Amino acid sequence: MAKRVSVDRLLFIVILLLVFIGLVMVFSASAVIAKERYHSGYFFLLRQMGWAIAGFIAMMIGMRVDYKRLKHPAVVFCLLGLTTVMLILVFFLDRLHHTHRWIHLAGFSFQPSELAKPALILFLAFFLENRTRSMDDWRNTLIPAIVPTLAFIGLIVFQPDLGTAIACAAITICILFVAGLEIKYLAYSFVGSLLPLYFLIFHVAYRRDRILAFLDPYSDPQGRGFHIIQSLIAVSTGGLTGVGLMEGKEKLFYLPEPHTDFIFSVLGEEMGLLGCMVVVALFATLLWRGVRTALRTQDMFGRFLAVGITSMVVVQAFINMSVVLGLMPTKGIPLPLISYGGSSLFITLACVGVLLNITKQAE
Amino acid sequence: MSVSTVRSGTNLRLYILAGVFVLWCCAICVRLVYLQVFRYGTFEQRAQHQQQRTEEVSARRGIIYDRAGRELAMSINVDSVFAVPAEMPKPTSTISLIARITKQDPRELLPRCEAAKTFCWLARKPDPEISARIRSLNLRGVYFQKESKRYYPKNELAAQVLGYVGMDDAGLSGIEGEYEGQLHGRPGQMLISVDARKRWFGSVEKQPEPGENVVLTIDEKIQYIAERELETAMQQTHAISGTVIVENPRTGEILALANRPTFNPNLSRQINPEKLKNHAVSDVYEPGSTFKLVTISGALEEKVTRPDEVFDCQMGSIVYNGMRIRDSKPHGLLPVSDVLAESSDVGSIKIALRLGEERFYKYIRSFGFGQQTGIELPGETRGLTKPVSRWSKVSIAAISMGQEIGITPLQLVGLVSTMANDGVYVAPRIVAATTQPQSAPQTIAFHPANERRVISTFTAAEMRQMMQGVVLHGTGKKALLIGYSSAGKTGTAQKVDPATRAYSHTKYVASFAGFAPVNNPAVTIAVVLDSAVGLHQGGQVSAPVFTRIAQQVLEYLHTPHDLEIPASRQVWLAQAKASEKDLEEGSPDHPGEAIDAAESASNDAIAPALPEKRSAAAAQSNSRDDHAATVSRIVPASLRQTSRSTSFSQTASGANSQLLTSSAATLPANGTVVLDVEQGGISVPSFVGKSVRSAIEIAELSGLDLEIVGSGVAQQQSPPPGAHVASGAKITVKFRR
Fold first, then answer.
1. Which chain B positions have a beta carbon within 8 Å of A287's beta carbon?
2. Whose C-alpha in A305, B105, B369, B374 is 20 to 30 A from the C-alpha of B77?
C-alpha cells in the first residue's frame, strides 16, 4: 500500500550536518578540558567520533528495517521492560556523586534514561495506534498509556535527572496531543503536575537556585547566577560572526560542561549569530521534515512514531537552546546530535534512522 | 470516512504542534539576535574584563657599564609574591603569616588584600631568602612572579651619576632617569586569559624588547679613587657636601664624578632627596678665584697684557666705583703670572678693567659659563651669568674675581680643561655610547662632538705655565705631585648667607681645579668642598684631594712620569721603606725626628717635599697631615715602579696619625700594598647550610659561578668563605641531604 519512495535526502543531509557540527564543536569546546583531564586534547573528540560511527550504523539499520516490524508486542514490551529494569538497576550500580544515571559496562558507560525516550515513543505509538477514537476513555486508554510514562518519569526524577524527565513528559504530551487527547486532560495534567513540580524544585536546593538564577541571574553573579551569566556572556561575545573556532574563552572553565549541556554557548561565542542560526535552521528543517513525514504517513503507528521521534529531538534541542539563552531555567538536557554524549548520540541517530525509514514509506 | 476525519483531526493537531514549535523556534531566534546583536557590546566588555588582563611583561633593563665594560648597574630576576585572596581557604591567617615573614604590618597588608579579591602584591622584589621561605610554605592562593630588580654591584659607587630605579623599574634620577627611554626597553604584552578557576592561560602577544645598555665614560677604578679620597676629605674637613670630577681634557670624557653626601641605590626606599643631588652639575656656586682664569686668559688672548707685565696690587686694597676690595694678603707689584699664583683680587680687577666688559663677557660665554654643558645627566643648571646690559658699575670687578657669577663644578672643569686642551673647549660627556642589548661590551671610538676654540694654543700654553706657577710657588702648593708636573687654580669663595643676603664669614666653598702633567695633560680634576669647618681655603682643603687623586689616577692610567723623582725623595723612599719595616717590627727609632723638626719649621711650601716625617711623626698638625698622608700612600707605588696606583686599604678616619699607625702596622714588609679596588675580588660568601636554591641566588648576587655537587643542604665549599676570588670565579659547593 505504502508507495515505496526514496529516503528523505534533505533530512538525511540535515542529520549529517548536525553530527558534523557537533563533532567540530565538541572538539573546540572540550580540547582544553580534555588536555587537562586526560592529557590529550582529542579525548572527547575521539570518543564522540566512535559513538557517531556506531550511531550511523544504527541509523542505517533503522533506515533499512521496515519500521512496521517494530509494531510487535515482543519488541515494544521487551524494550519497555529492559528500560525499566535498567532504570531500576542504576540505583544499585552507580553510586557516583549521589546521582544514578550511568551504567558502566566493559569500558562503556550508558545512560538508561536515554533509552527511556524511544521506549516510551514506541510504546505510545504501539498502544495508541488503534485508540485514536477512544482518547477520552481514560480507563482503557489514558491510564494504561500514562502509567508507563509516569513510572519512567518517576524513576528518572529520582536519579535525579529532572531535565530528562521533563523531556519524556513533553514527548508523551506531544504524542497524546496528536493522538487527539482533549485539551481539558492536558490542562488537568498540567495542574496536577504543579504540586509535585513545586516540591521537586523548591525543596531541592540546587533546583531552587537554578530557578532563582533564571529569574535574576545578577542577584548572585558569582554563585548561582554564575553559569547562566557566563553562558549569556559567551553568546553575546560572539556577535554576528563569532570570535572564531577554537578561539572562545568562556569554555575555559567558565562554562559548566562546555562540551555537553552548554555547547550551544560555545557555538554562539565562536561562530556567532550566523552559526547559531544555521543550527537553529537545521533543527527547524528537521522539525519540518518530521512533521511532513507524520502528515504523509497514513499509518497511525508510523505517524505517532514520527511525531514522537521528531518531538524528542526538537523538544530537547529547543529546551537546551532556551536554557543557554536564558529563556528557561537550567536543566540537564544536552543538545541532541551536537553535545558530547555517546548514549544520547547513538540513540538519537538510531531513532532518526527509524524516522528516515518512515519517510521512505510516506506518500 | 471516520478514518479520514481522524486523520484530518490529527493533521490539524500536527499543524498546531508544529506551530507551537515554530513559535518556540522564533523566540530562540529573537533571543539570539537580541543577545548577539543588540547586547553585543555590553556583554563583551564584561567578558573582556573578567577573562583577559593584559599584563605588561617588563623588559629587561639595560646594563650600565663603565668604560671598561664593568657593570655598574644591572638587573637580576627576583621573585615577587602576590596573593589571590579569593583562592585562599583562610586569607586572614595566610596573609598574617606572610606579613610576619616579610616583616610587614599585617594591619596594613590585610585591608589592602581584602579590598582586592583577585590580585594583591604581598612582597615586591624581596630578598631571595624571604621568597624562598614563602615558597616553601606552599600556600594556596600565593603566587610568584618574576620581576627584575635593579642591582648596583658597587653600592654607593657613582650613585648620583647612576641614579636609581623605583619599584616599577623606572629610572628616577641620574643616568637611570636620563636614559630611561633607552634603558627601559619596550615592555611586552602578555594577554592573560583567566579561566573560571583563576588559572592563567598566558600568551605572549608581544615579546618584550630588552633595554639598550649604556656605556659610561666613567672608569670604575678612577671613580673609586675619587670617591674614597672625597670621603676622606669630607671626614677631615667636615664639609656639608663635596664633589670631585675627573675628566680627560682632550676628549671631555668624565672619568669619575663623585659626590658627598651619597646613598646606596640598592636601598632605594631610604633615599634622602638631599643625597641624590649631583652637586657637580646642579650646584651653582660663586667660583671665587678660580674664575680669574677667565679674566687673565681673556686678557692674554686679547693681548691687553702679557704674563710678565707688572701690575701694582696696591698692597691689597682697591676702591672701584665706590666699592672697596681687599686682598686676603697684601701684595705690592706683581707680574700677571703672580697675580694668578697669589690670587690677587686687586690685580685681576685691574686686568679685567683693561679687558673691558664686552670682551670679558664674551670670554665668560665662550668658556661655557651661563649655559649647560650638555652632559648626559639630569638636573644640570646653566649657572647664573648676567649679560653686560644688566651689570652694575662694579660688576666687572666682582666677576673678575669670581663673584656675582654662578657656575657649576662641571663648568669649572670645562674651563680648566680648555687650558689643558690647548685652548679648545670640549663639552664634557659622561655617556660613551648606548649599545644593543645582547652585544658584548665593545671598544667605542670616542670623538669629541662639541668643541670650539676659545683661546689660542699660545695663550693656553701661557696659561698652563702660569697655572703651574700656582702649584709651584702660589696658593696651590699642596697640589704638587711626585713624578708629575701639575697645574691648577685655587678658589675660596664666601658663601652668600641666604638669610642676610650678605657674604658669610664662616662658610666658604673651597675649590681646586687643575690638571697634570702640565705639558701633556692626561686628567683634569676639580675638587669642590662646601663649607669646610676650620681650614677652608681651596689651596688648603681641596688641593690635597686633587693631589691624592691625581697621583693615583695618573699611575693607574700609566701616564709617563714627566719629572724625575727627586734624589731627596728617593732617599726618603728608601727611608720610608725602612721605617715601614721598623714600624712593623715595633721599633720606631729612626732618623725621622730630625726631618720632623725641619718639617715643623717649614711652611706648607716645603712640606710636600719632605713628607718622610710621616712615617715616624705621628701626632702632627692636621693641615700637614693631608698632604703627608698622601705622599706616604704613594710611596709603595713609586717603589715598585708599577704603573698601578696603590694605597692603604683603609680610608682615613679622624686623625691621620692614627690612621697612619694602624695602616703601617698592616703593611707587608716589602711595601707592596694591594689596592682593594684592584684586588677587585669578591669575598666568597658562606654557602654552608643553604639550600641549593638559595645558594644559587647568593652566587648570582655575588657574581660567582656556582658548581653544585649533590643535592640537599650545603656541607662543604671551596674556596672557603672569606676567600677573595675574581668575579665569576667558580665555587664548588657540595650538598648532602
1. 18, 21-22, 25
2. B105
ipTM of the complex: 0.93
Residue from A236, A262, A269, A296 to probe the interface with B (highest B Cβ count within 10 Å): A236
Separation CA B679–CA B644 (nearest Å): 12
- Give B436-486 pLDDT, tens digit per residue: 876 665 556 666 667 889 999 999 999 999 999 999 988 999 999 988 999
Phi-psi region of B587 (alpha: psi -120 to 50; beta: other; left: phi over 0): beta
Q: C-alpha distances in angstroms, B219 versus B246, B248, B335, B679?
A: 10, 11, 40, 16
Q: How far is CA B90 from CA A223, B85, B122, in A?
A: 19, 9, 15
Q: Which of B2, B7, B8, B21 to mutate to test the interface with A (most CBs of A within 10 A)?
A: B21
Q: What is the DSSP letter of B368?
A: T
**How do residues B235-289 score in pLDDT, each as one tens digit?**
999 999 999 999 999 889 999 999 999 988 888 677 777 888 899 999 899 999 9
C-alpha distance from A101 to closest chain B C-alpha (Å): 27
Q: Which residue on chain A is closest to B10 by alpha carbon?
A: A178
Cell of B113: 588584600
Check CB contact under 8 Å for A325 and B18.
Answer: no
Whether B200 contacts chain A with CB within 8 A: no
Q: What is the per-residue pLDDT across B322-356, written as a single tens digit (0 to 9) for each?
A: 888 888 788 888 999 999 998 888 999 999 999 99
Nearest to A32 by CA among A275, A239, A248: A248
DSSP assigned state of B171: B
The neighbouring-strand residues paired with B318 are B325
Among chain B residues, the shortest Cα distance to A294 is held by B14
**Do residues A49 and A346 touch, judged by C-beta distance below 8 A?**
no
List the beta bridge partners of residue B260. Answer: B242
* Cell numbers placing B539: 689651596
C-alpha cell at B183: 634603558
In DSSP terms, which residues pair with B730 in a beta bridge?
A: B705
Residue type, A101: R
Q: Do B32 and A280 touch (CB under 8 A)?
A: yes
B157, three cell numbers? 659607587
Q: Which residues of A touch B117 (CB under 8 A)?
A: none
Amino acid, single-letter form, for residue B645: S
End-to-end CA distance of chain B, in Å?
97
Q: Which of A317, A321, A313 is nearest to A352 (CA)?
A: A313
- Given CB atoms, is A253 within the 8 Å cutoff of chain B? yes
Q: Looking at residue B222, what is its pLDDT?
A: 94
C-alpha span between A220 and A233 (Å, rounded):
15
Give the phi and the psi of residue B470 in degrees, each rounded to 5. -55, -40
**B39 close to A (CB below 8 A):** yes
CA dihedral B40, B41, B43, B44 (to 10 degrees): 100
Listed residue (B306, B417, B411) closest to B351, CA to CA: B306
Cell digits for B105? 604590618
Closest Cα in chain B, distance from residue A107 (Å): 30
What is the C-alpha radius of gyration for chain B, rounded to an integer number of angstroms? 35
Contacts 24+ apart (CB under 8 A), A87-94: A87/A112, A87/A113, A87/A116, A87/A152, A87/A155, A87/A156, A87/A159, A88/A155, A90/A159, A91/A158, A91/A159
Is any Cβ of chain A less than 8 angstroms from the Cβ of B35? yes
Supply the Cα-derived Rg of chain A in whole angstroms.
Answer: 20
Q: Which of B260, B294, B292 is nearest to B275 (CA)?
A: B260
CB-CB under 8 Å, B2 with A236: no
Pick A239's closest partner by Cβ from B6, B15, B40. Answer: B40
Exposure b/e, B641-659, CB count within 10 A at least 16 = b: eeebbbbbeeebeeebbeb
